[in-house]
Amino acid sequence: MNIQTKFHGQITIKEEDIIAFPSGIPGFLEEKEFLILPLEGTELYVLQSTNTNEVAFILADPFTLLPQYEFDLTEEVLEKLDIKSDKDIAAFTILTVREPFEETTANLQAPVIINQKKRAGKQVILANTSFLTKHKIITPQKQGGK
Question: Is 141 domain-assigned?
């Protein structure tokens, strides 16, 4: 099957590459099927809708951005995604890319969780967390100084 994408042009995909988001993504509830595509030349990914080529989110590995990042998934999420083991999980954070790139932020309060075995995903809004929806991914270097 061929689809048109926002960043990769037209590509051929296999049915088994599609990740189902039964609840959609907040703000895009009608979008139920996505692909994760590498963004060439970077450590970033694109969460691309298979239905609407303009619906594409830039993703990053939150543990690379912030090594102390951690969260617990509720029983409801584990059941909804049919997660049996931590090995089944891939976690991403959605970036808000800004100009200049140093102003880009990551939504660490709402990670995208994927059950890699079942090809099911959900953006999970974490409760009782100190992580922000607009966490700067590049910290400014200190000027001058000791």
Answer: no
What's the domain count of the chain?
A: 1
With b for 16 or more beta-carbon neighbours within 10 A and e for fewer, the 27-51 pattern comes to ebeebbbbbbbeeeeeebbbbbbbe
Contact 93, 117 (CB under 8 A): no
Among 139, 141, 113, 143, which residue's Cα sits nearest to residue 125?
A: 113
pLDDT tens digits along 60-111: 999 999 999 999 999 999 999 999 999 999 999 999 999 988 899 999 999 9
Instruction: Residue 53: give its domain's CATH number.
Output: 2.30.290.10
Smallest CA-to-CA distance from 111 within 91, 87, 135 is with 91
* Residue 145, pLDDT score: 44
Domain assignment of residue 81, given as a range: 2-136
pLDDT of residue 140: 58
